[in-house]
Automatic annotation (TrEMBL):
<feature type="modified residue" description="N6-(pyridoxal phosphate)lysine">
    <location>
        <position position="674"/>
    </location>
</feature>
<dbReference type="InterPro" id="IPR000811">
    <property type="entry name" value="Glyco_trans_35"/>
</dbReference>
<keyword id="KW-0808">Transferase</keyword>
<dbReference type="InterPro" id="IPR011833">
    <property type="entry name" value="Glycg_phsphrylas"/>
</dbReference>
<keyword id="KW-0663">Pyridoxal phosphate</keyword>
<comment type="function">
    <text>Phosphorylase is an important allosteric enzyme in carbohydrate metabolism. Enzymes from different sources differ in their regulatory mechanisms and in their natural substrates. However, all known phosphorylases share catalytic and structural properties.</text>
</comment>
<dbReference type="GO" id="GO:0005737">
    <property type="term" value="C:cytoplasm"/>
</dbReference>
<keyword id="KW-0119">Carbohydrate metabolism</keyword>
<comment type="similarity">
    <text>Belongs to the glycogen phosphorylase family.</text>
</comment>
<protein>
    <recommendedName>
        <fullName>Alpha-1,4 glucan phosphorylase</fullName>
        <ecNumber>2.4.1.1</ecNumber>
    </recommendedName>
</protein>
<dbReference type="GO" id="GO:0005980">
    <property type="term" value="P:glycogen catabolic process"/>
</dbReference>
<dbReference type="GO" id="GO:0030170">
    <property type="term" value="F:pyridoxal phosphate binding"/>
</dbReference>
<dbReference type="InterPro" id="IPR035090">
    <property type="entry name" value="Pyridoxal_P_attach_site"/>
</dbReference>
<dbReference type="GO" id="GO:0008184">
    <property type="term" value="F:glycogen phosphorylase activity"/>
</dbReference>
<dbReference type="Pfam" id="PF00343">
    <property type="entry name" value="Phosphorylase"/>
</dbReference>
<keyword id="KW-0328">Glycosyltransferase</keyword>
<comment type="function">
    <text>Allosteric enzyme that catalyzes the rate-limiting step in glycogen catabolism, the phosphorolytic cleavage of glycogen to produce glucose-1-phosphate, and plays a central role in maintaining cellular and organismal glucose homeostasis.</text>
</comment>
């Protein structure tokens, strides 16, 4: 943490005494009147709450203005539907947005309080697993900064992402009651509760005009209650909200049960329906296919659409202008039931004809695909949807029928296998609905999240759909918000850049180009190194406090932080660590600098292999870190409970960013962008957005290695891939695998990691670790040598920072706004 007044401190005292006094009065007012506490005996948590409430006060007027302006102008709204919003903490972000971080630090320090300890009181809003949920949060922030009237819609989970503890080297999941002390940033809207129906049956009926209609009746109802989470844009010119729904038992349903005199069971059932929004599914990149998950998906989609339609209908008498006023972005297929739900509303509730309803849907929806991994693609059994949502299943069948009719009509010759591949129903085995086909066909635009990923979509699983709708797939490379990931997370670097370029870059990230000439300036490089050093020391203090491990800030900080998944290849990283360990012991790495390898990330609770990899990291760390022959030259550390707040500490301190997924598996990545923006060099495969990062920073400023996506695909599918040959043909690799497989790191249980080695050598090595091993090791050797040249390394790192402007989520959002949503954006978010 920075000290007040330091040259690297962007929050150096500047506030007037009168401002400080005014903030003190506001804090004391909230402490007494909102929290019922006196200054005596107040805790850091109390001061956090008081400061958060004071900051919220600065946002509320703007929020109301933003909302009223959108109403008054009948502006087109953007609705971002997402099962996940990985928001993280909000206080620092909102203090910055409202321009009051410096004042707050000064005031609280003045009051004898520990400002950083107070910031640390905020629980993390971890309503997401990883990249997908964090993207939703970054896009919401950028939409707000760009003045777009936007609403996020999602679920107000009682339990977000679990906390990760490490016990004897193994992951233990603990539930995290993040709402324990309430949530200052959300307004609970007990007045906004909407009914959501499940189960029941359908029947034909006649409406008031004697037209035949379909009705959905009986079943059970759950209420969705709204909670509005505030999101401030840069400069707080606009404030939007994310409306998150919690489940409440239906009152009517209760009454019925209570009247039957079954009080205890009625209350028990009440909590059963309320359990709908209890917990986030902690599976990243896997669809577990659980019934409760499908229920959650429909629950939030139904409430959100009812809300969206109500807002539109408050101004419009009919639906003709719906697509001109409403853009709905589906974040992955999780909200894809929005498609049959909107059709149901238009047709069953408003008597609109099929074709008109379909064209409204098509003009309204767009869909973002996040992964091509087969295990992640959502499909649901026809029987399950038919039972839970009988009317929706009928509508999905009809959508499919119309779509396939069109396909047959357009075809030059009959091709039933092609029709089968395109169908929304997978007929192989138990019949299942392909949610991606539903979302694709209903949307006017479908986007991938990096150029390579979008190309692979067109060529691979969406190939048939792409040929049917050649203009539909577009690319929208992911981005990150520079407010959180540079301005808030890296105060020392922000201060340095601001002294040289001013602070306009915070909302115009391309301004960082102004650093390019400074990369040639030795004095600037010196300052840049001092900043990195400050950040590394701060991380060292954190790791020491948390793990009791002392790290050397002079060593190369080699960082891989992300969910633990085989495709991300943390195991390949560990294999490099063991290789380097062996080389050091054999005196074959004397030209290499001391290295600290940091890993962090959570494994899905049911993902055995991922958990085993976490355990291996701990076992390897124990052996290496205790080996006197290695001394300070190599350290391996696993930082537990990776989340947004931990990411904010690690990103600024990294020298090297590990982005080493098997080419063709990581759709985009955003951790890669956070690290490069904070001055880490990337070692990576040509995968996801790494490719575009390489284009921007220049091939000479990034370390690429390994198979390309097309070569990896050929190797895996066309045969000719013999992992055993790599194993027997490379003595170093052989040694590493034997050490893992034969218990060098787990002497008490020599077979502990047998399964890991077998996966590689005997079961096909699906993610091609062995094929990429030699090139990775050689590349790491080049990294080490490059790091020893301070000046050259800093030059590269500065050029990385300077050329990351394209990966601001402001750019991403501007492209969505222009090419998908067709809404205007504020030209000058910095208000300059
Ligand atoms: C950015 C971020 C991610 C995504 O990281 P990738 O390296 O792109 O997988 C996951 N979790 C958290 C907490 C993040 O901040």
């Amino acid at each position: 943490m920075t000290q007040g007044g330091s040259i690297l401190d962007a929050d150096a005292p500047v506030a007037k005494e009168s401002e400080v006094d005014a903030l003190k009065r506001r804090l004391h007012k909230h402490l007494r009147h909102s929290l019922g506490k006196g200054a005596v005996g107040s805790t850091a948590l109390d001061w956090y709450m008081a400061l958060a409430l004071s900051t919220r006060d600065l946002m509320v007027e703007t929020w109301m203005d933003s909302t009223h302006r959108a109403y008054a102008n009948d502006a087109k709204r953007v609705y971002y539907l997402s099962m996940e919003f990985l928001v993280g903490r909000s206080l620092t972000a909102n203090l910055l947005a409202t321009g009051s971080l410096g004042l707050a630090r000064q005031t609280l320090t003045d009051m004898g309080l520990d400002f950083d300890a107070i910031l640390d009181q905020e629980p993390e809003a971890a309503l997401g697993n990883g990249g997908l949920g964090r993207l939703a949060a970054c896009l919401m922030e950028s939409m707000t900064t760009l003045g777009i009237p936007a609403y996020g819609y999602g679920i107000y989970y009682d339990y977000g992402m679990f906390s990760q503890y490490i016990d004897g080297g193994q992951q233990v999941e603990m539930p995290e009651r993040w709402l324990r002390h309430g949530n200052v940033w959300a307004f609970d809207r007990s007045d906004v509760t909407l009914p959501v129906r499940f189960y029941g049956r359908t029947e034909d009926a006649l409406d008031v005009r004697n037209h035949k209609v379909r009705r959905w009746l009986d079943g059970e109802e759950v209420f969705a209650e709204a909670h509005d989470l505030l999101v401030a844009g840069h400069g707080c010119w606009t404030v939007n909200s994310i409306r998150l729904w919690s489940a409440q038992a239906s009152r009517e349903f209760d009454l019925r049960r209570f009247n039957q005199g079954d009080y205890i069971n009625a209350v028990a059932e009440q909590s059963f329906s309320e359990s709908l929004s209890h917990v986030l599914y902690p599976d990243d990149s896997t669809s577990m296919g659980k019934e409760l998950r499908l229920k959650q998906e429909y629950f939030f989609v139904a409430a959100s659409l009812a809300d969206i339609v109500r807002r539109f209908r408050s101004i419009h008498d009919d639906f003709t202008k719906f697509p001109q006023k409403v853009a709905i972005q589906l974040n992955d297929t999780h909200p894809a039931l929005a498609v049959p739900e909107l059709m149901r509303i238009l047709i069953d509730a408003h008597g609109i004809g099929w074709d008109e309803a379909w064209s409204i849907c098509n003009g309204t929806f767009s869909y973002t695909n996040h992964t091509l991994l087969p295990e992640a693609l959502e499909t649901w059994p026809v029987g399950l949807i038919g039972h839970m949502l009988p009317r929706h299943m009928e509508i999905i069948y009809e959508i499919n029928h119309h779509f396939l009719e069109g396909v047959r009509h357009r075809a030059t010759q009959p091709d039933d296998t092609r029709v089968g591949r395109l169908s929304m129903i997978d007929e192989a085995g138990e019949r299942r609905v392909r949610m991606s086909h539903l979302a694709f066909v209903a949307s006017h635009r479908v986007n991938g999240v990096a150029a390579l990923h979008t190309d692979l979509m067109r060529a691979g699983i969406f190939g048939d759909l792409h040929r049917e709708f050649p203009d539909r797939i577009v690319n929208k490379t992911n981005g990150i918000t520079p407010r959180r990931w540079l301005q808030a997370a890296n105060r020392p670097l922000t201060a340095l850049i601001t002294r040289h370029l001013g602070d306009r870059f915070v909302a115009h990230l391309d301004d960082l180009r102004g650093l390019v000439p400074l990369a040639e300036d030795a004095a600037f490089r010196e300052e840049f190194r001092a900043v990195k050093r400050t950040n590394k020391e701060a991380l060292c203090r954190y790791v020491d406090a948390r793990l009791g491990v002392e790290l050397d800030p002079n060593s190369l900080f080699d960082v891989q932080v992300k969910r633990i998944h085989e495709y991300k290849r943390q195991l390949l990283n560990v294999m490099h660590v063991i290789t380097l360990y062996n080389r050091i012991r054999e005196g074959r790495a004397d030209d290499q600098p001391p290295r600290t390898v940091l890993l962090a990330g959570k494994a899905a609770p049911g993902y055995h292999m991922a958990k085993l990899i976490i355990r291996l990291i701990h076992d390897v760390a124990r052996v290496i870190n205790a080996d006197p022959l290695v001394g300070e030259r190599l350290r391996l550390v696993f930082v537990p409970d990776y989340n947004v707040s931990v990411a904010e500490r690690i990103m600024p301190a990294a020298d090297l960013s590990e982005q080493i997924s098997t080419a063709g598996t990581e759709a985009s990545g955003t951790g890669n962008m956070k690290l490069a923006l904070n001055g880490a060099l990337t070692i990576g495969t040509r995968d996801g957005a790494n490719v575009e990062i390489g284009e921007e920073v220049g091939e000479e400023n990034i370390f690429f290695f390994g198979l390309t996506a097309d070569k990896a695909e050929v190797l895996r599918t066309k045969g000719g891939h013999d992992p055993w040959q790599y194993y027997t043909g490379d003595p170093e690799l052989h040694m590493v695998l034997d050490m893992i497989g034969q218990g060098a790191f787990s002497p008490a249980e020599p077979d502990r990691y047998r399964a890991i080695v077998d996966t590689l050598t005997r079961h096909g090595d699906y993610y091609l670790l062995l094929a990429d091993y030699a090139d990775y090791i050689a590349c790491q050797e080049r990294v080490g040598l490059a790091y020893r040249d301070d000046e050259a390394w800093s030059r590269k790192a500065i050029l990385n920072v300077a050329r990351m402007g394209r990966f601001s989520s402001d750019v991403t959002v501007s492209e969505y706004a222009r090419e998908i949503w067709r809404v205007p954006v504020r030209d000058d978010p910095a208000g300059m």
